[in-house]
Amino acid sequence: MTRLIFLLTFLAMGCQCGPSTTPPKPTTEEPAEQKVDWPALSSDPDEARKQIIERLEKEKGAVVVIHLDDQVLMDRLPRIQRIFTEVMYEAKRQPLMQKAMRSADHGLKLRSPEAFIEYLGITEEDPLLKLVQRRLKERLVSDAYLSDDEQRPGSSAFIQEIHGTGAQIVYISSLDFIRSGVGLTRALRVNGYPALGARSHLMMRYDADQSVDDASKQQLKTIESLGPVAVVFSQSGLLMKDAFPNAYSVCVLEPGSEDPNDSCWSRWSAPPPAARVEPNPGVGKELRPLGPPSENSTPLDAGP
Fold first, then answer.
1. Which of 169, 158, 165 is nearest to 192 (CA)?
2. Are 182 and 234 members of one domain?
3. How far apart are CA 72 and CA 249, in angstroms?
4. What is the pTM of this model?
5. Which among 237, 235, 268, 277 has a CA at the least distance from the CA of 253?
6. At the N or C end, where does the chain have fewer CB atoms within 10 A?
7. For 169-205, how does the pLDDT look when each residue is reduced to its tens digit (9 = 90+)?
8. Rounded to whole angstroms, how far apart are CA atoms 232 and 221?
9. pLDDT for 282-303, tens place per residue?
10. Is residue 119 domain-shared with residue 85, that is, in the same domain?
11. Tally of structural domains, the chain
């Protein structure tokens, strides 16, 4: 009887001596992302800006790379002017100091040290040239002067619009953080660019000892880990083009430059509307002779 009960219990529970029927482990691999063929970027800057915003609104978590060198975002004219004004004051060259201070007032856009040296008439034989070169080496990319840079018209508003789509913004520079990091960060903040936030990153060399190539490789590796790169802004339009062939590569000329082929941006926003010229009501009308002089000799502006 005991054996019968044991046998019935064994059969009811089922035999566990057969082949293993372990259920398959659930896969944790995410489905491969489908590649989207985005339309080619328009050659018209105004239309291109609309395309960029539309793509970023659709491509969630996209990355936008902005090269800070070569005045892509900011104009360094105030920085150059300040350095030369201070050097002329230090050298007690009062006429040259006044000339440097008023260069922008005269409509001159001297954004390079070479152009400023030529404008001031400093020759190679002049001992002042060595002082200028020494001060440029000390100050041109230092924290105290980088924050003098001004935003190019429309750039801040457009970058804020990009940030508002939810995209990640990566600013990259070949400058080193030890010498230029604070000044570059301050320049971004003062000019209204999203900087050092959850979706805003600044990538630079750590110090002057790190090579530019090594820093570029590390920057590229980090950018790849952030997400799909949608847009890259640079002066040449070739930055990271091989690494991210599906991204829009936008070349942005230096301030004051124009592209004869209109393939690069010369401005970040639409040009201001042309001033409205009111027609002269007297043009095209018959000129009538004046009447005889009034007999009243009292001036019109005379009081009572």
1. 158
2. yes
3. 13
4. 0.77
5. 235
6. C
7. 999 999 999 999 999 999 999 999 999 888 999 999 9
8. 15
9. 555 555 555 555 555 555 444 4
10. yes
11. 2
The closest of 217, 174, 167 to 197, measured between CA atoms, is 167
The answer to whether 207 touches 177, Cβ cutoff 8 Å, is yes
Q: Tell me, what amino acid is at 228?
A: P
Among residues 224, 42, 68, 192, the alpha carbon closest in space to that of 53 is found at: 42
Q: How many residues are listed for the chain in this entry? A: 304
> Residue 11 falls within a domain, yes or no?
no
Asked if the structure places residue 187 within a domain, the reply is: yes
By the 8 A CB rule, do 87 and 97 touch? Answer: no
